[in-house]
Amino acid sequence: MHSIANHPLVSHRITLMRDRATPPKLFRELVAEITVYLAFEALKDLRLRTVPVATPVAETTGGLVDERIVLVPILRAGMGMLDAMLGVLPYAKVGVLGMQRNEQTAEPVPYYAKVPPAKGDELAIVIDPMLATGGSACDAVTQLKSLGYRRIKFLNLISAPEGVSRFEREHPDVPVFSAVMDERLNSHYYIVPGLGDAGDRIFGTL
């Protein structure tokens, strides 16, 4: 399942992100703001437990999140979404997966993995700004499944049809949440119109 955010405030921020004149500080802020929106959209089905609450006016009951959650950014660009996710889920654990793209084949080259194995029905949330070829996202989910995770979601800012198609083919059980779907990949496997290299723009290394 692939869900796309259709919200004018998200479109506004995506437009600012695309602009090559947008400086890294503003770019990071926009990434964070869109990430928060995606988190709320993607996590509507979180389990709650009922607890008593004493307000200044009356006794009542409320709901607290009753989930074990692991956030898994794909290095390095996924780190740009991590602080925003931790703002929404401050009790979540964090694992990381490092992958570098082979510029000739566009396939991921894993170089680091530090993710706690699943101990039950934890929810793993993979975060990465771009879903281009789908290679890194698919590999990340494959690694998580090998660690015992059965509940996984993938959040990204901009996706390409080619990447979504591959992801849905390899992991049809994992929902994908994107801020926007772009037109295609170019001959260098970059998303068009896209926004360039998300990691370079987040970290100012253009």
Layout of secondary structure:
Layout: E1 2-4, H1 8-18, H2 24-42, E2 48-54, E3 59-65, E4 69-75, H3 79-88, E5 93-94, E6 96-101, E7 108-114, E8 123-127, E9 130-131, H4 135-146, E10 151-159, H5 161-170, E11 176-181, E12 184-185, E13 191-192, H6 198-203
Parallel strand pairs: 1-11, 4-5, 4-6, 4-8, 8-10, 9-10, 10-11
Antiparallel strand pairs: 2-3, 6-7, 12-13
Helix pairs in contact: 1-2, 2-3
Identify the notable features of this structure and list them briefly.
alpha/beta; 206 residues; Rossmann fold; nine-stranded mixed beta sheet
Task: Describe what is shown at a glance.
With 206 residues, the chain is α/β, with parallel strands linked by helices. 33% of the residues lie in helices and 32% in strands. α1 packs antiparallel against α2 and α2 packs across α3.
